[in-house]
Protein: PLP-dependent aminotransferase family protein
Amino acid sequence: MRSLAVDVITQAFSQQTGEKLHRRLYAAICSCILEGSLKPATRIPPSRDLADELALSRNTVLRVYEQLQAEGYISARTSSGTFVSESVLDNLVQRKAPPSAPPQQALSVQLSERGQALLGNASASPRQWGAFVPGVPDVTLFPHRALKKIQDRLSRQPLPQYLTYDAYGGVAELKASLTDYLRTARGVRCSPDQILITEGIHQALDLVTRTLCNPGDQAWVEEPGYWGIKNILRMNGVNFSAIAVDEEGLVPAEENAEPPRMIFVTPSHQYPLGSVMSLSRRQQLLALARKTQSWIVEDDYDSEFRFAGQPIPSLQGLEEASPVIYIGTFSKTLYPALRLGYMVLPEPLAAALKKVHSDLYRGGHLLMQAALAEFIREGYYAAHIRKMRQLYSRRRLALVALITRQLGKEYLGEFSSNAGLHLILQLPDDADDLAITQEANQQALLVRPLSRYFADTPTRKGLLLGFASIDEEAMAPAFTRLAEIIKKHLLNPA
Structure:
C-alpha cells in the first residue's frame, strides 16, 4: 500500500533543483524531517518503492539512506524497516534557525451583506446536549443495535445505486415506507413520487425558498417563530413579515396586506409557544393561499410527541391537492446527527424540485436511507416513538411540577399543548430573559430566551426549557439552580 511518506518525499523532491539526483533526494528528505513533515518514528518508504516512484535507480536511493543514517536522521530496525530517528529533535535544535520571514499583511475579510446579516442573527447553540437544551431528543436510548444489524446486512453486498449520486430524491424504499407511515400517523395524502428526502429541515426550507421565491418576494413567518426560517429567507433575499400567533395559531394579516409568496407555519405544535392551529384557522389559511396563489410550508417538526388527546392531523391532508409543502424530520424521533428529513411536495412541484435538489445538494446517505426504510418497515421506528413518547411525557410532567412548586403556576406558558420536546417558562414582562439565559448558560443550564424568537419587538419574555435529554433525577437539582438564577434577577433587575 502506498504510504503518505512517499507522497511527502515526492513533493519535496520535485521542488529541489540541481543536476545530481542523489543530492536532490538527500535535500528533499532532510527538509521533510527538519520541517516536521516526516515526524520522529515515521516509517521511511522501502528503497525499491521510492526508487520506482521517483524513477531513480535503487542504488541512488540506498546511497542517500546510508548518508542519512550515518548523520542520525534515520535508523534501521531489524525486520521492521527504516524510521525517522527519535533523536532527530537534537538536529532540529542544533540546526541554525532560518531568518524570519517579513511579516505578512493580514488578509482582509469582508463578508457579503447577506453573510453579515446571517452572522448577526445566528442563534444555534454551541452545545446541543444537557440540562434544558430545547429540541434535542434523548439519543442515549435509540436502538442502535437494531439499526446497525440492518446496516451491516445491507453493507455486505450494497447495491450500486446506494453508492453513487442520487438523482431521484432519495431511496425508493424509504419513500414508500414514509408514504405508509405518514398516511397512517399524520393523515398526509401523498404517493412515493411526491416525497423528497433531504438532509434535515434546513435544507428543505432552503430548497423551497430558492426554487419558489425571487429576491424581493414576500413571505409570512410566525411571530414568535423559528429563527432558522428567518435566516434562510435573509440569505435568499426574501422579505418577510412576522405575523402574530394566538391560541389558534397564526392570525392571517388584513385583506390589504401584500400577498405572500410563501407562508411558513407550524400548525400541529407552534414553535416555540406550543399552540395548535384550529380547524377554522386552517381552512382560512388554505383559502387565502388558493386566492393569492401562495405556497404554505408546513413544518411538522415534532408532532409525534403528543402526550394527551388525539394526534393533530396534518394541514396538508385537510384538502385534496392542497397548496401545502409538508416538511418532516428524523432529528427529533431518532437523532439530529442522522441529518435526514423529508418533504411531501404537491404533484406539480415534485419533478422540478427533485431535479434542483440533485443539482444543488447532490443528495447522499443512500445506504443509511435503505437501512432506515427497513427499520421503519420492520416496526422498530413506531416502537421507538411509542417508548419515547411515554418517557418524554413523564419528564414533561416532572418539569411542570418543578416549575409549579418552585416558582408558581403563573410561570407556565399560556399556550402549553402538552406536546413536543420543550415548554415555555413564562417570565414577567419586565424580566430580562437574555441576562437570565446568559448566566444560566454559564452554569451549563442550556436554556434559550423567548425574546430571541421575535422578529419585531418582543411581546412576551420567557425561557425555552427542553426536557427530553435530561432524566428526572438530574432534572430536579438542575432546575433548582435555574430557579435561583431567575429569582435573583427578578429581585435585583439590572
